[in-house]
Design goal:
2 copies of one chain form a homodimer. In chain A, 37% of the residues lie in helices and 14% in strands. Chain A has 397 residues and is an alpha/beta fold. In chain A, helix 4 runs parallel beside helix 11 (268-278). Chain A has 14 helices and 15 strands. In chain A, the strands form 4 sheets. Chain A has a 7-stranded mixed beta sheet, with helices on both faces. A 4-stranded antiparallel beta sheet of chain A has the order 11-12-15-14. Chain A has a two-stranded antiparallel ribbon with strand order 1-3. Chain A starts with a helix and ends in a 16-residue tail after the last helix. The first copy, chain A, is globular and about 70 Å long. Chain A folds into 2 domains: 4-29 and 285-391, Aspartate Aminotransferase, domain 1, CATH 3.90.1150.10; 56-282, Type I PLP-dependent aspartate aminotransferase-like (Major domain) (Aspartate Aminotransferase, domain 2, 3-Layer(aba) Sandwich). At the A-B interface, helix 2, helix 3, helix 5, helix 6 and helix 11 of A face helix 2, helix 3, helix 5, helix 6 and helix 10 of B.
Chain lengths: 397, 397
Amino acid sequence: MTDFAATKAMFHLPEGVIYLDGNSLGPLPLAARDRIGSAMQDEWGEMLITGWNKAGWMAKPMALGDRVGQLIGAEPGHVVMGDTLSIKVYQAVASALELNPARKVVLSDNGNFPTDLYMVEGLLKSLGDGYELRVVDPEAVADNITEEIAVLMLTEVDYRTGRKHDMKALTELSHANGVLTVWDLAHSAGALPVDLAGCRADFAVGCTYKYLNGGPGAPAFIYVAPRHADAARPALSGWLGHDAPFAFDLNYRPGKGIERMRVGTPPVLQLTALEAAMDVWDMADMADVRAQSIALCDQFIEGVEAACPELTLASPRDSAVRGSQISFRFEDGYAAMQALIARGVIGDFRAPDIMRFGFTPLYIDQTDVARAVEIIADVMQNRLWDRPEYKVRAAVT
Amino acid sequence: MTDFAATKAMFHLPEGVIYLDGNSLGPLPLAARDRIGSAMQDEWGEMLITGWNKAGWMAKPMALGDRVGQLIGAEPGHVVMGDTLSIKVYQAVASALELNPARKVVLSDNGNFPTDLYMVEGLLKSLGDGYELRVVDPEAVADNITEEIAVLMLTEVDYRTGRKHDMKALTELSHANGVLTVWDLAHSAGALPVDLAGCRADFAVGCTYKYLNGGPGAPAFIYVAPRHADAARPALSGWLGHDAPFAFDLNYRPGKGIERMRVGTPPVLQLTALEAAMDVWDMADMADVRAQSIALCDQFIEGVEAACPELTLASPRDSAVRGSQISFRFEDGYAAMQALIARGVIGDFRAPDIMRFGFTPLYIDQTDVARAVEIIADVMQNRLWDRPEYKVRAAVT
């Protein structure tokens, strides 16, 4: 059984704060602070250019890819880190479309995170005539998986509501219709068990600054199923995805398997922070994390619903079809969230009316949830959100 | 007059090392080490998600873009940081091609850094029939700028030899033929004066881990001329380039001007290190840096040629057509470079036979150059490179 008191002690959590926004940016692992300090001085400072070999900088994208891969059920050697999630979406969908050349429609849903849709919109414009991005309601996805579709691109867990798609069933249905799948695991990796190999997913992408606690701007990851890895063409064909980057050939020749999905120089400082953050997972079992996440979410729903009739549950009540967050709808949700943040309960707001709270057992426990419920009840019952200063919108919400 | 002793004191330089590889990875600015420490603890640690506003994380790509822009002659508000140089090349060339839709040929030269060619090769494959990447000798570029060419993409300073293109003349010739230009400033930014606005360059891209000392994996930058900024379509259309990223619209609407070239979540830790590194430039005048760089380069050529007849100058002798590095050809250059590194003179090797040395006045002075020449002379005159251990190739050269 995972010792969650021990994992909680591995993070810096500010005094007086209950942090329910780890689904947006995970908190600082103490080891990351120390590791970055020594990477700056002992690696960059002392090794200079030789750090690429001596400190293993060049190997980090593959080594860390495997550590992330273990949490998402990927075959070893089939995940690599780099770039941002937006870029990795582009790479995955571009590759998937080429592997299914007779078709031109990408299917997604309107619960997807917008950048996934934007990137594909941009890609399809470049590809030209006939390509189409078809966006349907989440509930209508299955019915729209037809022999017309080239690629199904979905985010497994909805960023606003936490609604969770059935990856295995939708992937099977896709394959039965000759459709390839691209799964965005932004709200899955580190939040719940994922079994990419078992689901026979074709491509997957995700970020590491949420449930993996890699820090602001931590790099993304991409997975390509072994059966596609040596056939997929990386539309973003950069030198570090070349079969021999330091031969400096004039022509591109893709590297072996997932290595070809590397593009440019890896962000060593960000990878160093992420590497330290991944050590927390050596202490945690994903099945325990999932069970504890469900318990915390259920405790939160029960407490908030009992105390705050103004708040309407936006997340599924059934934990089997829910990720690791709970959202409530409230017309003045933006102001209410500011009032909560002022009282030390940090969640976030998503337009138009969603108050979002993430539950992350690695550092949030039952006592935190009980205290958060009390504070929410106080804010709502006493209309503490109804003050002008809470209604001023910040640049980043 | 720039006080180069003062700028040198702003870097950590390992004891006993003469670092002539700042053209590949700049050394650690002391301020970067301190700044990262406080960003980890006081920003990520204490502010958590609120750091995006409170610590100004979200504004860094534009703020730092302007600071880099000052060194390359860009109009204020027309440079933004993000991604890697490879990704920014893709973005720039994709946009430029769309702005010149009647033509389908991208012209470049075989002195370009390979990833630029690879990225365009990948892009043109996605764009489909009729697109062509035409790669000629550097000396043949001007003659190949014709009305058939859509985009001229060149790296101003050759990564192997330091040969420098005439940006102003080639841009003028391009415009006279209806060709748009994409300039890669990887070996220019921070190395020599660049006047993007004065040259009427259309697009420019570059990296910040070389002469700008931003650290391993520091982000790239992109410039779009004001006359194109609101017309260019970012093929990589991510949410942070959206006009209203936090409205979470389902459809993409490009942001104003250069903001649209942002893609995904910015790498805050890397940007923090770069921000500290840019402070060094508050102490330095680019004209002084250039004059001192030429003096150091000339001193090095003279010293090495006098002592080492086996080494053949690969860089232009004329400083007017040269960047801030000096390269020599030597058949056993790889082993010779390892022998030098073992003796504290760090340069690097580029296949097949190039020994490359960068001269960076911010932290390299005449005494360093004189000492480096002595050590090179010792290695060459006594064939110290001719040992088996120096011939074993590392993964990253």
